[in-house]
Design a protein that fits this description.
alpha/beta; TIM Barrel; eight-stranded mixed sheet; two-stranded antiparallel sheet; 6 helices; globular; disordered C terminus
Length: 284
Amino acid sequence: MNKQLKIRDGKVVGRGIEWCDLTWNYMGGCEHRCAWDMPNGERAICYAKDVAMGVAQPFYPHGFEHHYTHPDRIDEPFRAKHPARIFVDSMSDMFGHWVPAADINLMCDAMDTAHWHTFLSLTKNAPRLLQMARFPKNLHVGVSAPPDHMWGHALSPQGKAKMLRKALYTLQQVRARGALTWLSAEPLSWDIAPILAEYPSAMEWIVIGAATNGAQRFMPDAQHLANLLAECDAQMIPVFFKGNLAGHPAASPWREFYPGYVPSPWNTAPSPSTLQPSGVGHAY
């Protein structure tokens, strides 16, 4: 597994993926072919594909759009003895349509066994979550906001709205079954607040970030961010700002809250998660 803390001279000076402690990549590769349109006219590819085609290329001999498994990594969570927040398959999509059910079951079994950890998953294939018979009790089930391009073609505004509605409906169903649910809006590239308002109680946590393309950073529209924060506060959804939002006028006061934190105007200090999801078991 890869640690996400960055430590220099014994001090934490930064993080990779700020909202987790470790990443666990039993699987690799993705067939979604996501891309995002940047405000300057450029197009950004998925960060995982960028990594796979760069420093991690030896692990992707057939390219990124191929399903890989690493059997030697399945027991990695057992080696981390201290409780940690572990992002599952940052280099793939655990619930992608191409992933065999056997691989999902294997990972769920490992999460069940490593009960002292909190695992976090993200998918752009939300409907497959409804095929799951059960989820590990320590898995936080998340979906990503739709990208601008997927499966090799552009998504229209109507198409993205439809996809987000389907994802939020799915989260409502998953949460009703006892799992903790969350949404990743990175980047926040359009006003998703009105659609969130249509699906109350869909999620218990949200991560918000800016659009990035290499070293370039493009802040979300201030009104879009303000609208989203207002809706999150109305639904009492804890918000976690990615570090790339630093300096945004609407990102004040700064928020790095986790599931279980109750937002209020009198309490703005970051709070670690104390909530244990009440979901059951695993898989198909």
